[in-house]
Amino acid sequence: MRIELIQPFINATDAVLAEMLPGPATINDVSMDEEVYRRKGVAASVAIRGDIEGRVIFDLESETALRVAQVLAGGEIEPTEQLARETLCELANIIVGNAVTLLNDQGHSFKVFPPSIHTDETGYAGGPDSEALVMCFETPSGKVYLNISLDYSHQRAYSAAESLG
Amino acid sequence: MQDFDSLVRRKDGLPLQYLIVDDSVFARRNLQRIISMFGGVMVGEAGDGRAAIEAYGRLLPDLVLMDVTMPDMEGIEAAENIINQHPDARIVMVSSVAYQENVSEALRKGALYFVQKPPKPEILYDVIKSVLGQDAVAASATKEKNDSHEN
Question: What is the pTM of this model?
């Protein structure tokens, strides 16, 4: 996994959370994860295919998702689970959109798929080429987890071939 | 929250009418909330490009706020279609995916501006004022003008 691919997503998450949620967002608990991903609450996943391949997951504990939904809706409505899912998808859409804007202007070509809500308890299948960076953004509304697994597509093919021996 | 002078139509002093197009309900509510800060009203909404074309023809709003990535028909194609049928249509793209190629294509197809998400109210306000030009006026300016006439 390359830092130049990950950095735009970290920057975009930081900037968008700071812009959309009141108060500062700080990063803590950065780790590499080779295990199967298990969601912590409400999770939205965005798939990326092309020169760069992988996925980005945004994961919020259920109470945090409801609080974020209420804040982003202007505090005027009672948040529901459906609104929380909608909000998370739009948040993921905005963050990934901002990040891929940067990567595209650097010459990378790829397709970004619309966010999908991840509902399985068991998580995504892992593998030798699916190492993920996991970061926790602490916001006044609660913790937002960012889980990124991205690489150049030829790099993934090479890693997969290598693992097969 | 920042206060904005209400933007109204110069021809009749009525609030500006908006069509909001985005496949995310949350995004539509958010834009509706922002335009209400400018004194505008959402007269219609659509979740994809095809529905936007139909809604535009039926409602003829003062301004369209249009997302790019949507199911069925994407925003840039819908904008082009609306402009072909209604050359005076005013369309502002509002999308998180603002890379150069996307922005250029949207402007080439007839959109007047491209605002990157998350939309900042102060930026959107200036964009709307700029796009509507002489056809919109800040309510305070109308009031000042009326006051000076009365004096």
Answer: 0.84
